[in-house]
Amino acid sequence: MNRFQDTVVLVTGAAKGQGRSHALGFAREGATVAVCDIATQLDTAGRMGTPAELAETQQLVEALDRRCLARIVDVRDDEGLEAFVAETVAEFGRIDVLVSNAGIASYAAYDQLSEQWWNETLDIDLTGVANSMRAVIPHMLEAGGGRIVATSSMAGREGVPNCVHYAAAKWGVIGLVKSAALELGTSGITVNAVCPMSVDTDMCHNEATYGLFMPDLAAPTRADAAKAFTVLNAMDVPWIDPVDVTEAVMFLASPGARYITGVALPIAAGWNAAHVS
Questions:
Q1: Alpha-carbon gap, residue 137 to 106, rounded angstroms
Q2: Are 27 and 61 in contact (CB under 8 A)?
Q3: 118-128: buried (b, 16+ CB within 10 Å) or exposed (e) per residue?
Q4: Alpha carbons 264 and 275: distance in angstroms, whole number
Q5: Tens digit of each residue's pLDDT, the chain (277 residues)
Q6: Helix (H/G/I), strand (E/B), else coil: 135
Q7: Which of these, 44, 37, 18, 264, lies nearest to 163 by C-alpha position?
Q8: If we measure between CA atoms, which residue out of 130, 125, 262 comes closest to residue 185?
Q9: C-alpha–C-alpha distance, residues 49 and 134, integer Å
């Protein structure tokens, strides 16, 4: 398929995980891709992407015979984002799709949550989405339309103990998306969010996440995690693959979703069925 032939897609947080999957998914369907990532380790997050991994994402896109621009960019940095967006437009002519995916996660009880952990999570997971949108929207308005898809989470649909900062940010992404969809409804720009459950990436498989779900186990394994995570889902699977999220993102960016805006779409193996939409 070539749903995105002659389409320019910008993906944040693309050094690895879901962001890399999104970049490759669009490239396989014909898109030109611009990718960025902070590509450095923060104390407040699990394992983050590296410059080498961001370069590898670029190489994988180019191996699909698609053009790719890759830059180290922190989504908290307005000037850096604006420069990257301007370079993308200068290089490729426009930006048709923004996938605002960059995010971090960490866990702490509410009364032990440091100001630094709160601020960095909100600054990246929520304000970073707003910054990315703000950098891209003027170019989409000038072009007469575009697609924006932001990464929220099932944690943006419910309360999450020991994760108040992450949940607050992901709830905020949904409010941001819905409000922007109303403001941009007559402009030809759609704005949506995806809400994945546990995804088979580093953000899911690490000591901190395992400890959140299995606090009584001294050294939980991936097999232990599979059992613990499966109980959340109606479809009897512990987690989904990044490509499952990518397929939803590409649908929301496709011509087939031209009249879908302001949606927070769960990709959750039925976890969402127990919640009011």
A1: 30
A2: yes
A3: bebbbbbbbbb
A4: 13
A5: 799 999 999 999 999 999 999 999 999 999 999 999 999 999 877 788 999 999 999 999 999 999 999 999 999 999 999 999 999 999 999 999 999 999 998 888 888 889 998 999 999 999 999 999 999 999 999 999 999 999 999 889 888 888 899 999 999 999 999 999 999 999 999 999 999 987 878 776 767 777 776 777 778 887 877 787 787 788 888 878 999 999 999 999 999 999 999 999 999 887 788 776 5
A6: helix
A7: 44
A8: 262
A9: 24
CA distance 194 to 101: 10
Separation between Cα atoms, residue 136 and residue 141, nearest integer Å: 9
From the list 107, 110, 166, 210, the catalytic residue is 166
User: For residues 34 and 92, what is the distance between their CA atoms, to the nearest angstrom?
Assistant: 9
The pLDDT, as a whole number, for residue 276 is: 65
- Catalytic residue flag (residue 166): yes
Which structure tokens are listed for 4? 């995105």
Are 131 and 175 contacting, i.e. CB atoms less than 8 angstroms apart? no
C-alpha to C-alpha distance for 26 and 24, rounded to whole angstroms = 5
How far is residue 52's CA from residue 167's CA, in Å, rounded to a whole number? 30
Which residues does 197 contact at the CB level (< 8 Å), separation at least 6? 154, 232, 233, 239, 240, 266, 267, 268, 269, 271, 272
Q: Which one, of 4, 7, 188, lies nearest residue 92 by Cα?
A: 7
- Residue 277: the pLDDT is 58
**What are 160's two structure tokens?**
């999450």
